[in-house]
TrEMBL record, chain A:
<keyword id="KW-0812">Transmembrane</keyword>
<dbReference type="InterPro" id="IPR008274">
    <property type="entry name" value="AldOxase/xan_DH_MoCoBD1"/>
</dbReference>
<dbReference type="InterPro" id="IPR037165">
    <property type="entry name" value="AldOxase/xan_DH_Mopterin-bd_sf"/>
</dbReference>
<protein>
    <submittedName>
        <fullName>Xanthine dehydrogenase</fullName>
    </submittedName>
</protein>
<feature type="domain" description="Aldehyde oxidase/xanthine dehydrogenase a/b hammerhead">
    <location>
        <begin position="256"/>
        <end position="336"/>
    </location>
</feature>
<dbReference type="Pfam" id="PF20256">
    <property type="entry name" value="MoCoBD_2"/>
</dbReference>
<keyword id="KW-0472">Membrane</keyword>
<dbReference type="Pfam" id="PF02738">
    <property type="entry name" value="MoCoBD_1"/>
</dbReference>
<dbReference type="InterPro" id="IPR046867">
    <property type="entry name" value="AldOxase/xan_DH_MoCoBD2"/>
</dbReference>
<dbReference type="InterPro" id="IPR052516">
    <property type="entry name" value="N-heterocyclic_Hydroxylase"/>
</dbReference>
<dbReference type="GO" id="GO:0016491">
    <property type="term" value="F:oxidoreductase activity"/>
</dbReference>
<dbReference type="InterPro" id="IPR000674">
    <property type="entry name" value="Ald_Oxase/Xan_DH_a/b"/>
</dbReference>
<dbReference type="InterPro" id="IPR012368">
    <property type="entry name" value="OxRdtase_Mopterin-bd_su_IorB"/>
</dbReference>
<keyword id="KW-1133">Transmembrane helix</keyword>
<feature type="transmembrane region" description="Helical">
    <location>
        <begin position="21"/>
        <end position="39"/>
    </location>
</feature>
Amino acid sequence: MNDLTPGEKERSKLAKWSRRGFIGAGVLAGGGLLIGIGVRPGNPIGKLAPKVAGGAGEQLVNSWVKIDTNNIITAIVPHCEMGQGAHSVLAQMLADELDADWDKVRVQQAPTDGSYVVTDTARMFVAPFTMNAADWIEPTWNGLFTQVARMADAMLTGGSSSIRTTGQHSMRIAGAAARGMLVGAAADEWGVPAGEITTENSTLFHKASGKSASYAEFATAAADQPMDQTPALKTPDQYKLMGKSKARTDIPAKINGTAEFGIDAVPEGLDLSYAAIVRPPVPGTSVVSMDSARAKSMKGVLQILNMETFVAVVADSYWQAQQAANTIGIEWSKSASPIKTMDDQYAAFAAALDEAGETGGEEAAKKGDAQSTLGSAAKTIKAEYKAPYLAHSPMEPINCTAHVADGKCDIWASTQVPLMARSGVAETLGFDAENVTVHHPYLGGAFGRRLGVDEMTLAARVAQATGYPVKVIWSREEDTQKALYRCADMARMRAGLDGDGKLVAFDHVFTQRHDPAEACVPAIYNIANTSVRHAPADLHLPFQAWRSVDHSQQGFFIESFIDEAAHEAGADPLEYRMEMLKGSPRHVAVLKKVREISDWGGETPKGHAKGVAMVESFGTIVAEVIEVDMTSGKPKLVNAWAVCDAGYVMNPDGFRNQIEGGIVFGLTAAMYGELELVDGAIKQSNFHDYKMLRMDETPNIEVAIINSGDVPVGGAGEPGLPPAAPAFANAIYAATGKRLRTLPIAKQFA
Amino acid sequence: MLIATEKKQERDALANFILNGESVNIDAEPEMPLLWAVREKAGLVGTKFGCGIAQCGACTMHLDGQPVRSCSTPVSMAEGREVTTIEGIGGVDGMMSAVQQAWISEQVPQCGYCQSGQIMSATALLRDNPSPSDDDIDAAMKGNICRCGTYTRIRRAIKVASGQLEPRSEEEA
Ligand code: FES
Ligand code: FES
C-alpha cells in the first residue's frame, strides 16, 4: 500500500463524488462504484451529527459498499464479529436489495490501524492505490471516523443493533440505490426504458432485446447516475435472501483451527516474548513492595516489571511467565473502600433504599398515583430482591500483544472498541494516535467484557518497558478476580391488588441504573399506577456492561415480583400477565405462542413444574417458559421455550442461535453466578468455583419466532437473557412453593 | 525492525513426539504443558487456552487417540507418542471430517473459541461410540464449557454426524 501525504495528493484525478442526503456515490479509480453511507438523523448516533458534520446536509459516513470491476461486492462496516453473525446478516440485507450473487458478496470490518482514520490511507483501504475522495469530506474525515467509529463500536456492536442500525439504514438502502443506478446506466447504454430491465445474481437483463451484462460492466458508469436517496425497498414477499437461514461465513474457519483470535496473533517477523501479570486484588490499590527473588531465578524469565498498578513477568513462554508470577509476593496498599464483604455491599444498598423510603429517590418513571393506591388497595405485597456481582468470563482469556518501537506502537487484541483502544494506547504512551495501529482479529466472546481498553493500555506499557514485542495473557484467575463486573443490586417492590386481584399499583426502588434507562420500568403491562425510583449507592467493584446490562437484574426483580402478585391473586401466572397485556397485540401473540409451544397448563411429570417470564429489551419481545425437575430436591433444568418478536428476523437460524445463547447465559448466572468478597477481594477464581452450565445441565431449548412487521426492529444478542432467570425461579416456586428472591439458585438447594 | 536477540536463554530440554502425523522436536522443558509447547513452540494455535486447570476443555487434544486436557498434561507425557490437534483431524487436502461437516450444517459456533475443544471431544466420542445416546453425549461433552451456550447445537451436530438426525437446511425459515 502506497502512503500519500496531503501534498502528494493528485487533486487532478479526483473522482466524482456526489452527495445528496445521506448516501453518496463515487467512482473507484480503476473502475467500479463506491457508495458511502451515512447514518440518518434520528438514529441514536444522530446526536453526533452536529458535532462532526461541517454544514447542513453533510452526513456521517460509517459504511462503504463497493462494486469492483471483477464483480465482487464488498461492504465495509464498523461492526466487529464476535460470534453474533452480524457480518453474514448484513451481507444478506445488502445482497437481497441489490439482487446480488450471494457468492460474490463480502463483508469486512473496517480496519482500525492508523490508516483507516487518516484521510489518505483510509482511501487506500477503500480503494487501494488510486482512490481519491472529493474535498467535501476532507474537513470532517478525521473527527468523523474517530467519533463515528467510537460510537459505532461502543454502542452498535455492544447494543444488539448492528442489524437494526447498519443493516436497516445502510445496507438495504445502499443496495437498493446501487441497483437503481446500475439499472439506470444499463438503460442509457442500451437505449431502453429502465423499467424493462430486471436484475438477478449480479446481472442486468433486458428481455425484449436479449441483452444482459454483469454489474461489473456498469459499475463505473453507474456512478454518474442520479442516486435515489429513498429507494423503494423490497417487501417481505420479494425477499430472496432476507428471512433465510443462510450459513454464516465465519463458521468454516472456526471448526478447523484456522480462525485467528486475539490470543493467537503471532505477528509476522516478530520474535514474541510472553508476559503474565498480577493486578491488585482489591480495586484501586497499588504495589507497596514486592519479593520477586525466586521468580527471577526461574527458567525462561526475562524481566520482572513493577509497574505500580500491576506487576508483569516477561518470559520465553506464557507458562513460564505465569509460573514465575505465581511465586511473587506482593504487598498492596490499603483500600479506601469501606466494603470488605458482600454483606457490607448489601448493607450499603439497604442504607440507600432506607433513605429513599417509600417515596424518595430519583424518579425513573411515574404513572397515576401508586402511593395512595397502595394505601387503599384491597391487598398489598412487598418484597426485597438481590442480585450479585458477576464476571463476564468470555471463553478467550483477556490478552493483548503489543510492540513499541521507533515511536510507533502496534497492538493485536480481541476488542469490541478498536478505536477507543487506539486512542487509549496513544494517550498512555504519549504518542499521536496515528502512530498506534490496532489489529483486531476474532473475539473469543465478549458479552461486554471487551468494551474496555485496560488490557491494551497495560500491554502497551509492558511493551514500551521491554522494547521488544510481548504478548500479555491474563490468567483466568486474573480476569475472574481483577476485572470489571456486572454490578450487584438490591430492589424493594410493593404491589397493590384490587378486590379482583388485579394489579393496580406498583412501586419499585433499586440502587443501580446504567443502561438502558427503561429497563427498570414494567412498561409492557397496563398497570394504572406505577412509581419507579432509583436510590443510587456506591459499588465496590468497577462496573462494566454485561450482556443485556440492567435488564439482567431488572428482568429478575420485576418478572419474579409480577409472579408473586399473580400467586397472591390466586391466578395462573401466564394468564395474569395476559390480562395485563390487553391492547398490545404483539405482546399478546408472543405470550399465547409460548403458552402453546410449552403446553402450559398441560400434564407434567411428578416433581416437574413450569415458570414463565416476559421481557422486552433492545426492541425484541421475548417470553420464556422454563420447566424444572425438583424430584431430587435440587433444581434440574429440563426444557426452555422462547418466543420472540423482533419485528422481522433476517436470519432465523442465526437469531435462534443468539437467543439460545442468551438463555444459557441467563440460566448459568441464575444457577451458579456469584462473586463473593473476602476482605474486599473476589473469592471465586476460575471455572471450578465460578461455574458455568455444562452440556448435561443445559435444558432442551426451543425458540419460535414471530415476524409481526416487515422491518427488523429488535436485537438478538441480548433479549434472550432477561426472562431466563425469573422464569427459572418462578418454575421453582411452582414446584416447591419456595420463592427465590436472591441469586444464584443452586446454593439455596445445596 | 530491531529486536533484542540476546534476551533468549539457552535451552537444554527437548521434547519429541508425533504432532498430527509429523515428528517434532520441541525446545521445551518437561513440565511445560503440552498446550503451550504446541501453541508457542510448534506454532499450532488452533488449540485454545481457557482455564489452565482442566476445567473447560478448550485445550482438548488427542494423545494416542484419547482426549486429554493439554493445559494440564506435561509435554513429557507426550514423549514418543501421537498428539492430534484440531489441525490434524480433517481428512487429506483440507477435507472436513463428518464431525466438522455437521458443525457447519448445524451452524454450531458463535464466537468459536471453545469449538476446537468441543470437536476434539466429539470426535473421540464418535470414534468409540458411533451412535451415542443423550446420556453418552452428556458424559463425553460435559468437560467442555461453551460460554456462548451452543450446547443444544453441539448435541444436534453429534447426532447429525452419527446419522441419527438429518442436517439442517439453509432455506428453512
Ligand atoms: S484450558 Fe485446559 S481445560 Fe481449560
Ligand atoms: S462458541 Fe463461544 S465459547 Fe463456545
